[in-house]
Amino acid sequence: RPLLGLDVGCNSGELSVALYQHLLGLQDSNSSPEPPGARKELKLLCCDIDPELIRRAQQSSPFPASISFASLDIMDSGAREPFLSSYLERFGRSSFDIGFCMSVTMWIHLNHGDRGLLEFLALLASLCTFLLVEPQPWKCYRAAARRLRRLGRADFEHFRSLRINGDMAESITRILTQECAMELVCSFGSTSWDRSLLLFKSTSAQPEG
């Protein structure tokens, strides 16, 4: 059975393709598209709220049979639930083996508040056996707010009322482990952008055959 992956906030897809290649050991960028057996090993669903970025990703994808790109507001339950259910049903599954959330948590948090962040993390935990999260640190929140002010635009609706703040990697770890039935498997330290990569595993998910 194929492994199923979910990449939330994939932008124009370059990182999604790199993740796919890394997971299958396809490090050579000159590899022929759709190498033998790839379709049976990994199916990656990549979604983003921006339809133009998704259009670009679809046009440039070297693995169209294995990587699916979709325009989706992950916080819109009316659109999300039937779409994800339909995708999973194609494989006779109810969840993904692994989810990726790279530099997305801040935008969910700023646009949907503390309650939105909690809902988002609970959703990912319910959908994925493993979850790799790259939280943006609090300094990125302040920088995003400054950029809006310099542009003369209104501040993010929830920015000044966020009670979840400070060390965001610690906060997200606490939420996932204490409230979402996940355990921290590994912290991969800091990226070149001074962000942690945190790998979690569900403590309640049962393997699907």
TrEMBL record:
One of its GO terms (biological process) is methylation. It catalyses: a 5'-end 5'-phospho-ribonucleoside-RNA + S-adenosyl-L-methionine = a 5'-end (5'-methylphospho)-ribonucleoside-RNA + S-adenosyl-L-homocysteine; a 5'-end 5'-phospho-ribonucleoside-RNA + 2 S-adenosyl-L-methionine = a 5'-end (5'-bismethylphospho)-ribonucleoside-RNA + 2 S-adenosyl-L-homocysteine. PROSITE patterns: BIN3_SAM. Its EC number is 2.1.1.-. GO terms for molecular function: O-methyltransferase activity; RNA methyltransferase activity. It comes from the Eukaryota. One of its GO terms (cellular component) is cytoplasm. It is an enzyme of class 2 (transferase). SUPFAM superfamilies: S-adenosyl-L-methionine-dependent methyltransferases. Signal peptide: none annotated. Keywords: Cytoplasm, Methyltransferase, S-adenosyl-L-methionine, Transferase. Gene3D superfamilies: Vaccinia Virus protein VP39 (3.40.50.150). It is found in: Cytoplasm. Residues 1-205 form the Bin3-type SAM domain. Belongs to the methyltransferase superfamily. O-methyltransferase that specifically monomethylates 5'-monophosphate of cytoplasmic histidyl tRNA (tRNA(His)), acting as a capping enzyme by protecting tRNA(His) from cleavage by DICER1. Also able, with less efficiently, to methylate the 5' monophosphate of a subset of pre-miRNAs, acting as a negative regulator of miRNA processing. The 5' monophosphate of pre-miRNAs is recognized by DICER1 and is required for pre-miRNAs processing: methylation at this position reduces the processing of pre-miRNAs by DICER1. This is RNA methyltransferase. It comes from Tichodroma muraria. The gene is Bcdin3d.
